[in-house]
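Standup notes
- DV: blocked on the single-chain target, sequence here:
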Amino acid sequence: MSSDEIKAEVVDIILEFLEVTIHNILYVRKLYPDVIYTLKKKYGVSVYQLIHPDLVKYIEECLKAVAFNIRNRQLKKLFICFEEDDTIIDTFVIDILSITQLSNRNQYLVDFENNLRDFMLKLHSNRYYFKEIKSGEARFSIHLQTTTLSHLEFNKIPQYESFPWILDNQLKDHLDLSIDTSMSIVPIHKIEADFLKLQIYVEK
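- DV (later): unblocked, structure below
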């Protein structure tokens, strides 16, 4: 590991937080029936977790790419896009402002429990702002904004060959506010921890 890489401890903490976030965003959007979720405790709060094996596997594969880019300080944004009739109807954006090494683990635990609790309350209270998904063909997808170099390096690693990432110009156009002036932003939450600063919002 180079001296500039983010340590594994920090990567694992962020991955766990992002995994919980993705699962609960999917629950809030009601893309799938409630029976494929289970309720569990995480960081002292009740959260929802998917139990459908295909969906869990997809999220796990996506998080491998997230881990690679966090470790190399190349992750800029994570997008969770919801599509209906081949049109993106809204996108949850996790905007990574900064990631540093962890200096105080005990304080992290306190801060993150409070942050996650606040975020979950905001997430579930904001669900009524989102367009109802009606089509049985609706789906979601996860996208990352990194660098071209990081994208190429990740796809060269043999252990990731079964789940390659591709460039998505359609998503780029959708998220360019200068192209789509009708797009609105719904702020959800902002985290300012010792080692992590990010903001979460919805573009729709």
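- Follow-up: Helices lie at 8-29, 53-71, 105-125, 148-156, 169-174.
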